[in-house]
Known about the structure:
Elements: H1 10-21, E1 29-32, H2 42-57, E2 61-66, H3 76-88, E3 97-99, H4 124-129
Parallel strand pairs: 1-2, 2-3
Amino acid sequence: MAETTPPPSFxxxxxxxxxxxxxxxxxxxxxFPPEPNGYLHIGHAKAMSVxxxxxxxxxxxxxxxxxxxxxxxxxxxxVESIMADVHWLGFDWGEHLYFASDSSGSxxxxxxxxxxxxxxxxxxxxxxxxPTAGP
Length: 135
């Protein structure tokens, strides 16, 4: 029986197409965005392998960005546990550790130099009608 290679996932196909067309200049940057309100489970491990794996396959990087938007349920215990689990599974975010809450206010200050995201207090109705500057 001949060995066959399975087709790429839709995510890998999209990244390959973006690289083929030069959409992002050949850069591949992904993120793993856990919420620090509990311990990781098997679904997180799968997401981690996709996020860090695709970046590694293309010589890119993966950011570890905590979505710490509910301070009443989040704890440094979970942040430290998640960081230890990511390393235990063999992944490394390097200098790219971020928190969604990192900002100097709601004045449109980027959360990180490469994230391209800004904190806002805008309600959903004006947000939906606002123009975007995305790709």
